């Protein structure tokens, strides 16, 4: 049987802000293949997804990050070149977060997913950090794995 567990490593990074933008994601999500998977990216209090924008990237082992989707408004959004239509972004204004939605998740969707948010107060992109050993990445790392059991 196949399952799609999603694992997130959390941290925070922001520069030059008195009120720092904090981006958070759930620790894990698990869905069987073929189901819809939602990977969320939430903003801290004082920031609104109505004023900010998001970019999602996908990275597979040994490959450079690949642009998946950007969302600012319903009329200013789109997916990257070669990204299947099953990838979309759905804003959730009541919870102040964006969902990267993968409809009918497939094995090829296994990857790390990075959420970058536009900080309208600082006019800069900010995100979480993932620390592996001494290496620090300025990104929100979410690993989506589809495993055979």
TrEMBL record:
<dbReference type="InterPro" id="IPR036179">
    <property type="entry name" value="Ig-like_dom_sf"/>
</dbReference>
<protein>
    <recommendedName>
        <fullName>Ig-like domain-containing protein</fullName>
    </recommendedName>
</protein>
<dbReference type="InterPro" id="IPR013783">
    <property type="entry name" value="Ig-like_fold"/>
</dbReference>
<feature type="signal peptide">
    <location>
        <begin position="1"/>
        <end position="19"/>
    </location>
</feature>
<keyword id="KW-0732">Signal</keyword>
<feature type="domain" description="Ig-like">
    <location>
        <begin position="5"/>
        <end position="131"/>
    </location>
</feature>
<dbReference type="InterPro" id="IPR050150">
    <property type="entry name" value="IgV_Light_Chain"/>
</dbReference>
<dbReference type="Pfam" id="PF07686">
    <property type="entry name" value="V-set"/>
</dbReference>
<dbReference type="InterPro" id="IPR003599">
    <property type="entry name" value="Ig_sub"/>
</dbReference>
<dbReference type="InterPro" id="IPR013106">
    <property type="entry name" value="Ig_V-set"/>
</dbReference>
<dbReference type="InterPro" id="IPR007110">
    <property type="entry name" value="Ig-like_dom"/>
</dbReference>
